Amino acid sequence: MSPIPHPPFFFESWYNVGRTVTLSVIGFTALIALLRVSGKRTLSKLNVFDFVFVVAVGSVFAATIIDKDVTLVEGIAALATLIGLQVILAELAARSSFAERIINGGPTMLLSHGNFIPRALKRERITEEEIRAAIRGKGVTRVEDVDAVVLENDGTLTVAWTSKEPGETALVDAKVPAGDHVVERSNATNR
């Protein structure tokens, strides 16, 4: 019985090195061109949909460069398909609030009028200390002075407090999740 052949560990051939370099340069150039054509939305802050898109694009790009069974044309076709799908779904989300909620999800209110929302914190795996840090980061010293802290679709925490100027609130789409309730803070915890 002969041993199972293994590919060389450090070097196999100059052809493979040249192929990898060539496909890296051409693939990278094609990826940049496709992303420029698809628009800035493709490069925006990452929500769940965008994160999956970026991982898929990276995987296809890597397979195109490294996998000898994937040709350059197949790799570019796969990249173009993923980017096209992303553009179509982004357009659908922009035209339909229902589709936007399915594709991107919605923001979650974690603190309302100075009071934490425990079930929302637990479901989103965010601690009260993380909320306090976000509030401090906005220069606010008292939790009670904050109207809301919202976990946005891209994972950022938005801190909102009452403005002295009239205008429409940015909290119009951030709702306390169904079944959750705001827990009033006792005076003992307000030190």
Can you describe this structure?
By secondary structure, this protein is of the alpha+beta class. It has 2 domains: 14-102; 106-189, bsu07140 like domains (CRO Repressor), CATH 3.30.240.20. Helices cover 49% and strands 8% of the residues. It has 6 helices and 4 strands. Helix 1 packs antiparallel against helix 2 (48-66) and helix 2 (48-66) runs antiparallel to helix 3. The chain is elongated.
Low-confidence stretches: none
Number of domains: 2
Derived from helix and strand composition plus strand pairing, the structural class reads alpha+beta
Main sheet: which strands, in order across? 2-1-3-4
Taking the alpha carbons of the first and last residues, their distance comes to: 77 Å
Q: What percentage of the residues does DSSP assign to strands (E)?
A: 5-15%
String of helices and strands: HHHHEEHHEE
Q: Give the count of helical stretches.
A: 6
Overall morphology: elongated
Mean pLDDT: 81
The amount of helix comes to 40-55%
> What value does the Rg take, in angstroms?
24 Å
Largest sheet composition:
4 strands, antiparallel
Task: State the main characteristics.
191 residues, alpha+beta, CRO Repressor, 4-stranded antiparallel β-sheet
Question: Would you spell out the secondary-structure blueprint of this structure?
Answer:
Blueprint: H1 14-38, H2 48-66, H3 72-95, H4 97-104, E1 108-112, E2 115-116, H5 118-124, H6 128-137, E3 148-151, E4 157-160
Helix pairs in contact: 1-2, 1-3, 2-3, 3-4
